[in-house]
Amino acid sequence: MPAEGELQMGRQLDEDHAPETNGRMSVCRRCGSQTDGPEGRHHLPTERQTTRIAEWLVAEAQRLHLQRIRQARGG
After folding, report:
1. How far apart are CA 5 and CA 57, in angstroms?
2. How far apart are CA 26 and CA 10, in angstroms?
3. Which of 16, 18, 21 is nearest to 58 (CA)?
4. Residue 47, Cβ neighbours under 10 Å: how many?
5. Could you tell me the sign of the dihedral formed by the alpha carbons of 68, 62, 58, 60, in that order?
6. CA gap 46, 1 in Å, rounded
7. Residue 67 clears pLDDT 70, i.e. is over it
8. 70 to each of 2, 25, 28, 73, how far by Cα in Å?
9. pLDDT band at residue 4, thresholds of 50, 70 and 90?
10. Is the dihedral of CA 44, 39, 59, 65 positive or negative?
11. Sequence-distant (≥ 6) Cβ neighbours of residue 32 within 8 angstroms
């Protein structure tokens, strides 16, 4: 059973994007997190993935922030 921290991280990933799987593997192609199954309805990162996923979430937030700044400047 996943720990609360892993479940919370899974919810953060779900809020960021819908899991993108290839339909055969339980792994999101976008962030690399485990999902609840090959159809990928929800992210369920494992304990060993938490550090990498946390770094991915920070990088994604920074990327989106920079994208908004560029759009606000007209380019």
Report:
1. 14
2. 13
3. 16
4. 10
5. positive
6. 10
7. yes
8. 39, 36, 28, 5
9. confident
10. negative
11. 49, 52, 53, 56
* Torsion angle of C-alpha atoms 47, 52, 57, 59, degrees rounded to 10: 170
Dig out the tokens for 40 from the structure: 């990928």
pLDDT bucket at 2, cuts 50 / 70 / 90:
low
Predicted pLDDT of residue 1 = 58
8 A C-beta contact, residue 45 and residue 7: no
Whether 54 shows a pLDDT value over 80: the answer reads yes
User: Which range is least confidently modeled, 3-7, 36-40, 47-51, 58-62?
Assistant: 3-7
User: Tokens 């999902």 label which residue?
Assistant: 35
